[in-house]
């Protein structure tokens, strides 16, 4: 196997990849690099039919559990379902580890530091280095876009997590067109992930999508919290996430909604990019929003993410009634369960730490 790292530094190497396929077909060749997509975007024809793209993300919660030698919990969790809830002792332990995972995140070096030291302060140093490294890489592409604008957009995404992204909140010194281009490049680089509003009137969901109405996820919860800590003065934001009551867990940047979206993507097919969609109803004096939409065998299932163990389901029920559905999904800090509403809608409950199970079943 030949592994070419930081290949974006040598565009000629990128162009040469096709010849490895043609002349050395038995050799496994992997190319990777920081902000590699920035370079690929400039290559009009790039070995079409000779390369396979794999979409890699920070560690999922299941991978995090395996890394900290808790594979047994993964197996216990995967054996549970809405009809067979997990034992309460395991449920409490998984909630505790999920909170830790939100702070540490899934960047491999950060996870390694946590395993070695068990110190959030040491993990924070690694996260700071990664964020600084992104900023340094932005400078390499100053011929195509202002690196400062990329940094500003990255920070603005962190501050607008969980809400419709508003361009005029990014910078008073840059035009909307410039900000949109910066966002496009951040999406290409995989640092931010769009969640697009859709009318959900038919399939595919993209047919009813409104790309001017988007929310964005940041690539990693740990890095998100570090950016918020550095820019908002939360010196001990990790401790706050650990110690707060469940009802306040997500108030800093809609953290669990973002974490859930990232988990959905991480458990998807690595060989194709997973587009995320959500649904919003906005009428005067009334509003409703469903966080994510799943599609299976031509049926759209609404998914609502809750930060606690209770909460109304009015938006989901409204969506099901309007779209003619009968089954909805709720993910929160409560145990696996299933229940039926007074209106006859069925709701499957999956814990936030068990979204791999949900993705597998869907």
Keywords summarizing the entry:
alpha/beta; 2 domains; four-stranded mixed beta sheet; 11 strands; 43% helix; 18% strand
How does this model look, in words?
With 362 residues, the protein is an alpha/beta fold. The protein has helices at residues 11-23, 36-40, 61-67, 71-79, 88-104, 108-117, 120-138, 147-159, 176-188, 221-232, 237-243, 255-266, 314-323, 355-361; strands at residues 2-4, 29-31, 192-198, 209-218, 276-283, 286-290, 292-296, 299-305, 327-332, 337-340, 346-351. It has a five-stranded mixed β-sheet with strand order 7-8-9-11-10, sandwiched between helices. A four-stranded mixed β-sheet has the order 4-3-5-6. A two-stranded parallel sheet has the order 1-2. Helix 13 links the parallel strand 8 and strand 9 (327-332). Helix 5 (88-104) crosses helix 10 (221-232), helix 5 runs antiparallel to helix 11 and helix 7 crosses helix 10 (221-232). The longest helix is centred in the middle third of the chain and has 19 residues, at 120-138. It is globular.
Concise synopsis of the structure shown:
With 362 residues, the protein is α/β, with parallel strands linked by helices.
Taking all residues together, what is the mean pLDDT?
Answer: 87
What form results from the Cα inertia axes? globular
Catalogue the unreliable spans. Answer: 245-253
How many helices does DSSP assign?
14
Q: Label the structural class.
A: alpha/beta
Number of strands: 11
> Order of strands in the sheet with the most strands?
7-8-9-11-10
N-to-C series of helices and strands: EHEHHHHHHHHEEHHHEEEEHEEEH
**Helical residue percent?**
40-55%
Rg to the nearest angstrom? 21 Å
State the distance separating the first and last CA atoms.
35 Å
Number of domains: 2
Q: What percent of residues are in strands? A: 15-25%
Biggest β-sheet description: 5 strands, mixed
